[in-house]
Amino acid sequence: MTTPDPSAEWWTTSDVAAYLGVQIGTVSSYRNRNQMPEPDRTLGRTHLWRPETITTWNEGRPRLGIGGRTADADPRGTFLQVSTALESREAAEKLAREVVEAKLSAGAQIIGPVTSAFWHLGEFGTGEEWQLLLKTHSDRFEDLQAYLTEHHPWNNPEIVAVPIVAGSDAYLSWVRKTVESGEES
């Protein structure tokens, strides 16, 4: 992606995507959800924005942190889905039970087997793994990450957190209450 010319009279959807560092489809998604300014001009199916419309909007929009939301975006804070992978269903079940019992995650799902392709110690490989998905709150991520790092059988396990940008109020409140208070819900 090349950076669009800030002195241009108009930016197309492609220019806006390049400026934001996202795919064109993401810009369309922002538009469909009313999360960005409407085009300043539309010619047929081509949407055009003045560069200053986008730069001003971008400077003022909330920045996403580790959990994907700013603290004021949701009074409950930010929710995460954390994933890791293990070599067997049994290992995934064991680790899932441990982190849920420790209230580091409100719940866990195990998916597998999945086939992974990767580089390890300079060699390309493939293998069968079981994916473990954990639901937690950003306040608990560091503790969860430390636990996974310490108890995972691999030296350098995948530990990836992605924000949960939407969900039912009841479910997200349950996640928050479960990992915050340590009470069974």
From TrEMBL:
Transmembrane segments: none annotated. This is Uncharacterized protein involved in tolerance to divalent cations. InterPro entries: DNA-bd_dom_put_sf (IPR009061), Ion_tolerance_CutA (IPR004323), N-reg_PII-like_a/b (IPR011322), N-reg_PII/ATP_PRibTrfase_C (IPR015867). GO terms for molecular function: copper ion binding. GO terms for biological process: response to metal ion. The lineage of its organism: Bacteria, Bacillati, Actinomycetota, Actinomycetes, Micromonosporales. Belongs to the CutA family. It holds the Pfam family CutA1.
